[in-house]
Design a protein that fits this description.
This protein has 225 residues and is an alpha/beta fold. It contains six helices and nine strands, in the order αββααβαβαββαβββ. The chain folds into two domains: 57 residues, no CATH class; 144 residues, Rossmann fold, CATH 3.40.50. Helix 3 runs parallel beside helix 4. The N terminus is likely disordered.
Length: 225
């Protein structure tokens, strides 16, 4: 489904959520460089991230607002689904740790029968819902992985394995669904029972965080079938 055309370049509700912690922040309409025709409300590109005071840096650390960025892994997974829609077409999809909602939105546009998303952060859940509406798709948003009722055909996971302590989730995913797609740039080439590596792609977090080259290399893994 093609994205809706929106005239507003800023989402005031999401901007208010950001400004409660980061006064200089705005949620601006962004075209993703690696995802054709997919738009998200993300942190303003001119946010002075390299000129923050110690107090402002403390605020960023206490409220990281992961949902206000489209991480490299999210862009890669969204592009992967655009190119290989058979992974989600006609299926009930769960976007785990949805953040901005990019993976779930891509799944809906690739023909998923239904998309549900879960994220512990209430601001991320609101961002997922608003970004889904922006792109003309519907996503059912939950706050807890276990609250997503009914059968799930495939789970999408983008950039949540930033800590090896999260690796046990890989087993939980396979217990919940027959198929899993994981996109990650933080844990290098993990080897886990039930998962196989499909390939590696390059992308950049948007807005650009000037991350090192290693975090721009995203691997996609398939679990289950």
């Amino acid at each position: 489904m093609e994205s809706k055309v929106k005239s507003a370049t800023e989402n005031t509700e999401l901007s208010r959520l950001l400004q409660a912690h980061l006064p200089l922040a705005r949620a601006e309409l962004s075209e993703l460089p690696d995802c054709a025709n997919l738009q998200l409300y993300l942190l303003n590109a001119d946010f002075p991230q390299h000129e923050l005071s110690a107090e402002q840096m403390h605020a960023v650390l206490n409220y990281p607002a992961y949902w206000a960025f489209c991480w490299a892994s999210g862009q890669v997974l969204a592009s992967f689904l655009r190119e290989q829609p058979q992974w989600v077409r006609g299926k009930r999809v769960l976007d785990f740790g949805s953040g901005s909602g990019v993976a779930g939105i891509a799944a809906a546009r690739a023909g998923a029968r239904e998309v549900v998303a879960c994220d512990l952060d209430p601001d991320a859940r609101r961002a997922t819902a608003i970004n889904a509406e922006l792109n003309g798709v519907g996503i059912d948003v939950h706050g807890d992985f276990d609250s997503c009722s009914d059968d799930i055909d495939i789970i999408l996971v983008a950039d949540v394995l930033y800590d090896r302590e999260n690796l046990p989730w890989l087993d939980r995913f396979l217990q919940r669904a027959p198929a899993v797609l994981v996109a990650d740039s933080r844990v290098r080439d993990f080897s886990h029972p039930g998962y196989r590596r499909l390939g590696q792609w390059e992308s950049t977090t948007f807005p650009d965080l000037d991350e090192s080259a290693e975090f721009r290399r995203v691997s996609v893994y398939a679990g289950g079938q």
